[in-house]
Amino acid sequence: MRLAVRRLLTRLPGGGPVLVACSGGADSLALAAATAFVAPRLGRPAGLVTVDHGLQPGSAERAEAVAGWARAAGLDPVEALTVRVDGRPGGPEAAAREARYEALVTAARRYDAAGVLLGHTRDDQAETVLLALARGAGPRGLSGMPERRDLDGVPLLRPLLDVPRADTRAACAALGLDPWADPHNADPAYARARVRAEALPALVDALGPGVVANLARTAGLLAADNAALDALAAAALADVRTEGSGLSVAGLAGLPAAVRTRVLHAWARELGATPAALSHSHVAALDALVTAWHGQGPVHLPGGLQIRRRADHLQP
């Protein structure tokens, strides 16, 4: 655990503090303990933020207990933040995640943090890949969670993506820590909980224990491929632009399909299509304006956008 944290922190530029996002579960608690040990030895300030979603009895007391442990462990600053989940779009998981990340980003900005450390493990990555497969996701979805993602200018960092979940439990046991077991993680109403309790263990039984590491490794390989394709698509988008925010059909038609669909996806987002609602079917309809044109009408995109083909141009 400490080595994983050290590897990430030694690559992190600047001297600002890092904040550990800690729910009190084994993964984030072990991460916080490792960070409390490693960061001072690297001359890096380290604090902790715990978020109370208010969704379970005793959640406020649990958040204060995590904050109290963090202060005793030498982490500073330490905050226990309360967020409101009700009224947000999407299901309860998505709403809680959105509220949590908003709170983490706000705290990071308040302390000018160099990044927020998240406790996702190799097992979480494998579960993410399986869920993406079940949704029929493309390479972007199958690339799983990145080690670093910038959210509103704040780096979200995952040092444990190569660490098995069993190691976080072992670390807590070795340090005498008593992690909290979130009942949502075992609730079969949630797809991830079913994958964790049933699907992934069934794969391990059928294919051997290496399947978890192999799924996580696949995510890493696909992430590298996606980065290369995204760079090609960014250059191609610049090449096929026309006047009036349009794109050249001839230029698009000459691109490989994997690059062309990325260009169309990026262009749609640039025009204002709602990212969360922009699906494969929308991009496929845009692609058909290029590759299967037979005079069809406009493509309707999330956010009230319409894209038409006029002669040899796509136009919003």
Task: Itemize the secondary structure elements and their pairings.
Layout: H1 2-11, E1 18-21, H2 26-41, E2 46-52, H3 59-72, E3 78-82, H4 92-110, E4 115-117, H5 122-135, H6 139-142, E5 148-151, E6 154-157, H7 165-175, H8 191-207, H9 210-240, E7 247-248, H10 249-253, H11 257-271, H12 280-291, E8 299-301, E9 305-310, E10 313-315
Parallel strand pairs: 1-2, 1-4, 2-3, 4-6
Antiparallel strand pairs: 5-6, 7-10, 8-9, 9-10
Helix pairs in contact: 1-2, 2-7, 5-8, 5-9, 9-11, 11-12
Features:
single chain; 316 residues; alpha/beta; 6-stranded mixed β-sheet; 4-stranded antiparallel β-sheet; 12 helices
Regions with little confidence, pLDDT below 50 for 5+ residues: none
| Structural class designation | alpha/beta
Q: How many separate helices?
A: 12
Q: Give a count of the beta strands, DSSP E runs of length 2 or more.
A: 10
How far the N terminus sits from the C terminus, by CA atoms, comes to 50 Å
The strands making up the biggest β-sheet line up spatially as: 3-2-1-4-6-5
Q: Write the element-wise H/E pattern from the N-terminal end onward.
A: HEHEHEHEHHEEHHHEHHHEEE
What fraction of residues sit in β-strands? 5-15%
Oligomeric state, counting identical vs distinct chains: single chain
Overall form:
elongated
Main beta sheet strand tally, sense and closure: 6 strands, mixed
Quick check: average pLDDT?
A: 93
Helix content: 40-55%
* Radius of gyration over C-alpha positions, nearest whole angstrom: 22 Å
